[in-house]
Design a protein that fits this description.
Layout (H helix, E strand, L loop, with lengths): L16 H24 L7 H21 L13 H5 L7 H11 L1 H18 L5 H21 L5 H16 L2 H8 L14 H6 L1 H29 L3 H5 L14
Organism: Deinococcus radiophilus
Protein name: DoxX family membrane protein
Keywords: Membrane, Transmembrane, Transmembrane helix
């Protein structure tokens, strides 16, 4: 008799056994390919570095934006509602507790969005890539810690984003080390680029800022609707952490 394995169905988790196995397999392939590359070509061509750096910058910026923009309209954590407020700690998973913590403060969600959108914007411009990578590393360190210790099933992906940010920052390690020692930091070598390339990064910057404004407007509208809906109802008190013991006041 042959044992039939269950089909691989999407679970919404990025930390399944299949994902970790695939990551380990890709790591082995990368090590073998890197060793072979080093054996046959000891020095990386200067033409390859901008291409690889550009791919990493695009991947990191896109990933940060995909999470950062939706925080301005509360699309990731949402806003607190009655059933969340009536749940006890014992009924909450670690991830659910984190989600309620974030949903409690719309302003903090916006701050988290800024922490992800800002480095993405800096990664679009050659002169600010290192600063963007450093800010992204700080942001993703915090995100990875939350995912690890609150059991959010995006640990593997957030670890990849942190690694990408560190690789981009490490490319400028000599200048960073000189800055840390208080020494003079050499300027970036100037490269002649077509005008379309020089100004092309500003178009997505403007579009991203416009996207932030649109998402923020939607978030404010949703927040205003919630405040209007709960005016004069017990939900208003619940949204502030209180519960009505009796609908009749005791001072009459």
């Amino acid at each position: 008799m042959h044992k039939s394995w269950p089909p691989l169905l999407p679970t919404g988790s990025g930390d399944t056994l299949f994902d970790w196995t695939l990551a380990a397999l890709l790591l082995v392939i990368a090590l073998v390919a890197g060793t072979a590359w080093t054996a046959f070509q000891r020095k990386v061509s200067s033409q390859h570095v901008p291409v690889l750096s550009g791919l990493l910058r695009f991947f990191l910026a896109y990933s940060l934006l995909s999470y950062g923009l939706i925080k301005f309209n509360f699309g990731q954590f949402g806003l607190l509602n009655d059933w969340q407020l009536t749940a006890t700690y014992g009924e909450s998973s670690p991830m659910g507790l984190l989600w309620r913590f974030m949903a409690t403060s719309p302003g903090y969600q916006w701050l988290a969005g800024v922490a992800e959108v800002l480095p993405a914007l800096l990664l679009l411009h050659r002169r600010t890539v290192t600063l963007g990578a450093l800010l992204a590393a700080v942001t993703m360190t915090n995100v990875l810690a939350l995912n690890l210790f609150f059991d959010v099933p995006v640990k593997l992906f957030s670890a990849h984003l942190l690694l990408t940010a560190l690789v981009l920052a490490a490319a400028d390690l000599p200048r960073l080390w000189a800055f840390a020692q208080g020494k003079a930091v050499a300027a970036l070598p100037s490269t002649l680029q077509p005008a379309l390339w020089r100004w092309g990064s500003w178009l997505p910057t403007v579009l991203i800022l416009a996207g932030v404004g649109i998402h923020a407007q939607r978030g404010l509208s949703e927040l205003a609707d919630q405040r209007t809906e709960t005016q004069g109802t017990p939900s208003l008190l619940k949204s502030r952490g209180f519960h009505l013991v009796s609908p009749k006041p005791f001072n009459r």
